[in-house]
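Saturday, quiet lab. Running sequence design on the structure tokens for the scaffold JK sent over.
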């Protein structure tokens, strides 16, 4: 007598079960969840959107004079720096603190027990900060035009420059946020560990002052980090070409900006996976 047919289905047969989601699919689902969460967190929402807006408004109302030797108001120079620092706040600062907290409270350890992969986790973070940054930049530009009366660029070539500088900046600062998140020993130390370099970089990268007005040592130090180059790229978008004369090389240096940011991107792509941990060290 022949054995009854088995109800089991071998792997690969039709109906064997739903396919395992890809890394991109998991990452995009995570991005939706993370984006919803950041808009529900009042503190993160206020810091991300209110901080650059308040600083831009204060400096725009205080510094009403033109840049010495030009007919360009300093507030027009300042808008590029504020977009750059707002970009870094939304990515580097928020992620550096948030990931450290998620590691400390066990959220990452819980995610490790799910189909979540490191690549999917990174995709979720990058997409989330890209959405937040896009909203933040739109708010800053609207404020600059309606309140400070600043003109927007009209040439398509300038907006293309704006696009590639912003994309490279978002990815580099996001991965740097992942790297810095490995430094704090606990969630309590995360904020000071992350915010300190953020504040220092603002002062040496030409955010609050004309870059070439700073001492030479500070200029050389600032040129080592991506914030200076993102700011310079954005200045080439919002300032007239005559202002190239006050840049260190006397030009916008688009090629150098791209090379520096791409170099940082390669370094971060190596460091981020190497330093990322699902749970804090027992030490």
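Result came back. Writing it out in full:
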């Amino acid at each position: 007598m022949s054995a009854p047919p088995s109800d089991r289905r071998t792997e690969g047969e039709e109906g064997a079960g739903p396919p395992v989601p890809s890394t991109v699919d998991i990452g995009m689902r995570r991005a939706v969840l993370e984006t919803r969460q950041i808009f529900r967190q009042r503190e993160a929402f206020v810091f991300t959107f209110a901080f650059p807006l308040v600083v831009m408004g204060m400096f725009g109302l205080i510094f009403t004079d033109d840049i010495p030797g030009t007919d360009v108001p300093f507030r027009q120079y300042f808008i590029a720096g504020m977009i750059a620092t707002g970009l870094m706040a939304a990515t580097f600062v928020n992620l550096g603190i948030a990931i450290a907290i998620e590691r400390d409270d066990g959220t990452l350890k819980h995610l490790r027990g799910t189909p979540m992969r490191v690549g999917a986790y990174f995709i979720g973070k990058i997409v989330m900060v890209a959405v937040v940054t896009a909203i933040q930049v739109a708010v800053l530009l609207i404020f600059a035009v309606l309140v400070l009366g600043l003109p927007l660029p009209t040439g398509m070539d300038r907006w293309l420059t704006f696009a590639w500088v912003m994309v490279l900046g978002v990815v580099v600062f996001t991965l740097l946020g992942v790297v810095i998140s490995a430094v704090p020993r606990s969630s309590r130390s995360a904020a000071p560990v992350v915010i300190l370099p953020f504040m220092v970089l603002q002062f040496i990268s030409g955010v609050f002052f004309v870059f070439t007005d700073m001492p030479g040592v500070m200029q050389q130090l600032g040129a080592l980090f991506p914030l200076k180059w993102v700011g310079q790229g954005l200045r080439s978008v919002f300032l007239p070409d005559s202002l190239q004369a006050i840049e260190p090389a006397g030009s916008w240096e688009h090629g150098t900006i791209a090379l520096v940011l791409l170099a940082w991107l390669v370094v971060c792509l190596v460091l981020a996976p190497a330093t990322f941990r699902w749970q804090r060290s027992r030490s």
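Notes for JK: The chain has ten helices and no strands. Confidence is low (pLDDT under 50) at residues 5-13. Ask whether to fix the surface positions before the next round.
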